[in-house]
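Predict the 3D structure for this chain.
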Amino acid sequence: MSWKIALITGGSRGLGKNAVQHLAKSDAGVVLTYRSKKTEAAEVVDEINNNGGRAAALQLDVADIQTFPQFRERLVQVLKEAFGRESFDYLVNNAGHGIFKPFHETAEAELDDMYSVHLKGPFFLTQCLSDLIEDGGRILNVSSGLTRMTLAGYDAYSAMKGAVEVMTRYQAAAFAGRKIAVNTIAPGAIETDFGGGVVRDTPELNQQIASNTAMGRVGLPDDIGTAIAGLLVSGSQWMTGQRIEVSGGQML
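Done. Predicted structure below.
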């Protein structure tokens, strides 16, 4: 079997894990990264491999750019061993976390953390791995619906995601000569453990968001996982430099 291969950062949990699972169902091989959840990453890999897919996991802290050259070396080795390849087709910059802090209470260190994880890390990781991505491949950067709508307490997180969307447009231009499409996916409110599971586990907030969403409910991980898989493995190569919001019509 000739595998199309996706590299997804932060694939051991949440939306990243769901995207990994849906890509595997779409007959894509997957290399997922994890920062500290080695056991959880191994379980995802075993699930895919035991069901006829092919997956591998590598440790990566996207905030530590000094480790990127070593990560690249390990990635090349895994690509050869697991897939018989020296390149991959799809890069999904997904890894990250949020903080819930009002604007006036956000500390410099907290803003720096958001910058390192959500903007600086993906910028330099993509740069480091760019020549391993096949011509005609795809890059997908994960943003947030919060770049279009405001929700108090997500000031620093949302500002960095806004920067990710600008970076995406410039990357689309930078990679155009190699016919690599670069887009942003912007999830709305989803029932995951993000932010301590506040949307999933707070009935009042969940209902409030659902009442302001055209589709009448809060998003589920499958809503995003299927969208990511579709954007990567479908024939949408002509689309590049775009922001695709997947929010069920939240706060239209």
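The chain has one domain: 4-190+220-245.
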